[in-house]
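[recover] target loaded
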């Protein structure tokens, strides 16, 4: 077995639901991110890319089932470059990166591009197909933007609660109150704004042609816990979760260039980081927000290190409460977590978020010079993924 390395990362700015990217198809967003990461390796012959693995949580509309292959074609890569699309909901693009790294480590490929895309704005409504023509009753169109749809009646009701209700249950379980969640959310906005202002994201984010969006659209620099305290609970009348301390609905895409050590010559640059450990974990569906705890612990064990070695953490902020629950369980210094802002501010276009956090983690390690970092993401229906990176820059 050889090692796999992350050579480059790129993503689009993340747009708000119905915002600046609302008119851009998901396959076009994917092509932008794919082209963007390849501009960081201008000497790489696109024909040398042996596989593209793409994440996508929807697939029901313009994603066109295999949006990875659509991205290859729309980006103008040779038609000889194969592509697949993987769906692990919020973890799809991190799953794609993990699959790409396994291909490299097994010797099946030297150069692979992984990534993911989601347009939550353009996610279609779907209708259940009747078993016979002309049903007598009414048929309801169901949104595919987020959450459960067309639920199997055999699923236990406690498993199929809304994502928000599931996280209210986490708040109850771990005693994480509204004030702490709002403080966490406000910090996410402040750190993201500071990171953009400092130029951290300049080398990571590529523009979307024809769209006037230069940075992530959802960041609110003036956000504060005091302002967030005025928002009404979204899921329970007396609940703690609001639109301000949960990730929003977003549009965007991310891409990662992954290869073997021997591929450095063909790629034309040194790697940013080694993919040192991977972890997946599953538990009861309604507890999905807490699943990153064990996923990250597994990834660290496979990398042969402990939390004491970790200098940077990128944890996707699906909700403030689940992020806080994970950080508390890891007993890690909160200052190491999402130091450049998180999904509450930056956004969470489902299929793209895993690629975003992994790329951000590699660039944080390059900036600081620290050796080890962890990227982790919770996934609806009770799953999580994590990856450990070892800095090579």
């Amino acid at each position: 077995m050889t090692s796999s390395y992350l050579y480059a990362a790129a993503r689009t700015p993340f747009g708000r639901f119905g915002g600046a990217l609302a008119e851009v198809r998901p396959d076009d967003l994917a092509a932008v991110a794919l082209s963007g990461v390849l501009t960081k390796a201008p000497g790489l012959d696109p024909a040398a890319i042996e596989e593209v693995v793409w994440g996508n949580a929807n697939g029901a509309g313009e994603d066109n089932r295999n949006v990875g292959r659509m991205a290859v074609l729309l980006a103008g890569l040779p038609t000889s470059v194969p592509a697949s699309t993987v769906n692990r909901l919020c973890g799809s693009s991190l799953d794609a990166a993990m699959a790409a790294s396994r291909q490299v480590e097994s010797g099946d490929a030297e150069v692979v591009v992984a990534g993911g895309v989601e347009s939550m704005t353009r996610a279609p409504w779907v209708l259940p197909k009747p078993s016979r023509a002309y049903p007598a009753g009414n048929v309801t169109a169901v949104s595919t933007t987020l959450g459960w749809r067309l639920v199997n009646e055999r699923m236990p009701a406690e498993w199929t609660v809304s994502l928000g209700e599931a996280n209210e249950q986490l708040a109850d379980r771990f005693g994480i109150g509204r004030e702490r969640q709002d403080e966490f959310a406000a910090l996410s906005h402040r750190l993201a704004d500071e990171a953009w202002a400092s130029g951290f994201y300049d080398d990571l984010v590529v523009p979307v042609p024809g769209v006037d969006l230069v940075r992530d659209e959802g960041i609110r620099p003036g956000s504060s816990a005091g302002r967030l305290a005025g928002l009404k609970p979204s899921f329970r009348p007396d609940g703690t979760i609001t639109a301000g301390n949960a990730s929003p609905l977003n549009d965007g895409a991310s891409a990662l260039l992954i290869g073997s050590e021997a591929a450095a010559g063909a790629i034309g640059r040194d790697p940013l980081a080694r993919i040192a450990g991977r972890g997946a974990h599953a538990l009861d569906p309604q507890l999905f927000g807490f699943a990153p705890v064990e996923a990250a612990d597994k990834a660290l064990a496979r990398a042969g290190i402990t939390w004491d070695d970790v200098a940077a953490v990128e944890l996707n902020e699906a909700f403030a409460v689940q992020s806080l629950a994970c950080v508390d369980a890891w007993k890690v210094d909160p200052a190491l977590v999402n130091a450049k802002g998180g999904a509450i501010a930056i956004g969470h276009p489902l299929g793209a978020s895993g690629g975003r956090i992994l790329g951000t983690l590699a660039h944080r390690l390059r900036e600081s010079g620290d050796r080890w970092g962890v990227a982790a993401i919770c996934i609806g229906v009770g799953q999580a993924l994590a990856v450990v990176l070892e800095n090579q820059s």
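[recover] notes: The longest strand covers residues 250-260.
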